[in-house]
C-alpha cells in the first residue's frame, strides 16, 4: 500500500528575489507501507528540502504531496495532521531540546497532539525504551547528558508521536562507531516492532546498504536514480560522477570482479563478504585444482 | 518569513559603489546624510533625491530590494506627513472645515518630510547593501583610530561589532532551523491568544540561547588558540587604499553641497 507519494513536486527558494534558487525539479515517487527508503545525494542536492515537504513544513511551488492518497496541503487541518502522521527528525536534533527534564521534552510532541495524560505517559515510556533511555535518566535535565544521549532523547521526542512515517535526516552524523550502530539498530527495531515506514537521509553508503530496501538518489534537485540497493550500487561510476560513492567493500568486490575473480560485486557487509569469499574459494579451489 | 528582512543586508556586487573604500563610503554617506538636512527647498531636495536614485542605479541593486527596505517605515512616513498637514498653519488656507485647517505650508512640509525620510533611507541602506560587514567595521575601526590616543579600546569594539554582525545571519538560520524542528513536533506558533503564542516561543528561545552560549564559548576558545589578545598591533589581510574612485566620490558630494547651498540661497526656504 502506498503511504506517501510525491507527484511532480518542484520547489524554489526565495521566489522573486535575487536569491531565487530552484531546489527541486519534477520529483515523483512513492513510498510503500513498512518500507525503509534511503535518500542519498551530495550536499545541496535537495535532500533536506525534499523531506520538509512530507510533513508540510514546506509547500511545493508546484506539484502535490499525497499521504494515503490525499493532498496534505489542502487545508490547515490536513497539514497539521501530516505533522503528526509524518515524524520528521532533523539533522543534529539534540540542539532543539529545551525542557527541564528529559521526560517533559519527550512529552512535548504527544502533548501538542492533545492526547490524554495517561496516553502521553505511555508513549513517553515506550519511546524511551526504544532508544534505550533508563528510568532515572527521564528525570535528568537534557542539558546534563552526553552528546549521544541527547541525540537519543531528541529522536525519542519524535518517536513518541508514534508517526506512521518516520523520517530521519542523518540520524548518525557526528557519532562514534558504537553510537552510530546503536542509533541505526534503534531505528530498525522501531520499524520492525511498529510496522511503520522509515525514510533515512544519509551520507554513509555502508549504513544505507545495510539498512535500506530501496534507494533514491538525488542530484541537483532531480531524481537521478531510484531502485533497490543492488540496482543503485551497480552504477558505481554514475554515483561517483555525482560526488557520491559506493560502500568500500562493494568497491573492492567490483574491482576483484573486474580482475577476473568470479565474486559477486554487489557485496555490502563484512558478513556478506565472508560468505562470498568462502563460496568463491570452495568453488575456485575445486576449479583450479 | 525571518529571511525576508533586507535592512542591513549586504548584496555582493562589482559596481563603482561596491568598489569604493569603506572609509570613503562611510564619510561620503555621512556627508550626504547631512546634506539632506541642509536642504531648505524643493530644488535642493530634488537634487539630493535624484542623487540617491542615481547612486542606487550605479550600485545595480534592484529597486525592489530597496523598496522592500522602506516597507518597515511606511507607517512612520505616513504619520509624519499627516501630522504636518494638520498642524502646520503657515501659508495659504486651502481647505477649512470645523477645526481642521489645511494650509499650503502644511502640504508642502508634508511632502518635503516624506521625501526627506525616503532619501535618508535610500542613502543609508545603500551603505550596508554595498559594503560587507567586515569592510564596514574595518572602516569604522580605521576612522575611529585617533580615539586610541584617548585610551578608547577601538580595536576591541570593532572586533565585537564584527562578531555581532557576523552572527546575525547564523542566528537567523538557527531560528529557522529550531522553528522547523519544533513545528515538526507539532508546535503551533501561529494561532491562539497572545499569551499562548508567547508561551510557544519558549521552545524556540531556550535552544537558541543555549546554542548561542555554546557557540560563543567555542569561538572564544578558537580565538584564544590563535593567540588573540585584542592588542592594537594587529595587521590586516586587506589593507585599505584610497583610489581615484574615492576622490571622485568625495568631489561629487562636495559639489553637491555647494549646489545645495546655492539652490537654498537663490530659491528661498520652504521650511
How would you sum up this structure, described in words?
The complex is a heterodimer of chains A (289) and B (271). With 289 residues, chain A is of the alpha/beta class. Chain A has a domain at 247-289. Chain A contains 12 helices and 10 strands. Chain A has helices spanning 47-53, 76-85, 102-112, 117-130, 135-138, 147-159, 177-194, 205-211, 229-233, 236-241, 248-258, 270-288, and strands at 2-13, 21-32, 36-40, 62-67, 70-71, 86-89, 165-169, 197-201, 214-219, 222-228. Chain A has a 6-stranded mixed beta sheet, with helices on both faces. A 4-stranded antiparallel beta sheet of chain A has the order 2-1-4-5, covered by helices on one side. In chain A, strand 4 (62-67) and strand 5 (70-71) form a beta hairpin. The radius of gyration of chain A is 21 Å and the shape is globular. Helices cover 69% and strands 3% of the residues of chain B. The two termini of chain B are 40 Å apart. Chain B folds into 2 domains: 2-144 and 241-267, no CATH class; 153-225, no CATH class. Chain B is mainly α and 271 residues long. In chain B, strands 1-2 form a two-stranded antiparallel ribbon. Chain B is flat and about 70 Å long. Chain A binds chain B through residues 14, 16-18, 52, 55, 57, 80, 83-84, 87-90, 93, 95-98, 108-109, 112-113, 143, 157-158, 161, and chain B through 3, 11, 62, 64-65, 177-178, 180-188, 202-203, 206-207, 210-211.
